[in-house]
Amino acid sequence: MAETLVLASASPSRRMLMENAGLNFQAIAAQIDERAVEREIEHRALGPGELALELASSKALEVSSRFPHALVIGCDQTMSLGSQVFHKPADRDAARANLRLLRGKTHRLNSGVVLVRDGREIWRHLSTADLSMRKFSDAFLEDYLVRCRDDVMKSVGCYQLEGIGIQLFNSISGDYFTILGLPLLPLLGQLRMLGELDV
Length: 199
Known about the structure:
- By secondary structure, the protein is of the alpha/beta class.
- Helices cover 36% and strands 25% of the residues.
- The chain is built from seven helices and seven strands; from the N terminus they run βαβααββαββαβαα.
- The mean pLDDT is 93.
């Protein structure tokens, strides 16, 4: 068994999911520049899902370099519309533009999780969720931006499904954990296989 289980993330939602599942772990933010990692691997022309896995791996490997005897969980999520990958909007105007682009279409959340021990990746998994936005009016969009205030810039999709963001959607296909950025059921299964959790 690992001396300790470490989540390589500062994400409150990922931390909450693991705490609610009864896992004993430390949360340590990875010290990487995600955009720099993307630039380094750009030549590989990875799809959005593969990119999520590579970013998750980079986070886990960085934290593993500081906690070599731990079992480190790295996670990352990309949001894609076809082959286009989105990032968190810099401001409200960018959020408005992204939501206009997503309106009436189905985009995908790609959630990657990777396990690293002693600086070596030992497992990776990708889960996806498809979210279909309704054709909301410009008036609704402006009201939404006002009501969300700066929260609209906290997520890549400009929404939180546990709040008013749910009103943007017609349908969602995929599990809750994937949407929040941590494929929890596959992770728990792998931790059992590794002997980290009771069977």
